Amino acid sequence: MSHYIHDIPGRLRVRTPVIQRNPHLAQEVYGLLAVLRGIESVTVKVVTGSIVIHYDLKIIRSREIIAALTHGGYFDPGKAITHDDYLHAACVKTGNIVWKAFFGVFVDTALEGSALSFVAILL
Predict the structure, then answer these.
(1) Looking at residues 15-22, what average pLDDT do you find?
(2) Helix, strand, or coil here: 122?
(3) Do 67 and 97 share a structural domain?
């Protein structure tokens, strides 16, 4: 699992392998964030390593929350992918799978199971 960040004004989702399957560290993260001025709610999911933070934009910014997580050693922004990066990678992966499937059907149809047919296509 990699570090992940999705930032919508007023709501921040961070995924970090540091707290995944570690209830003690998850509780530390909750304690760190819950006391910050402007934080409205914090939800930590140990199974996925996900932290969802709702905050008041007038009081605190997402970069300050990320800085607190980074300073505490719970998050590494240098290793983080954004939501857009995640979607792009998923689309590329899906495109490759679809391409291989279509290409496989084409080759299968063209060859009809015969190596001689393949040689004929190449010539």
Answers:
(1) 95
(2) helix
(3) no
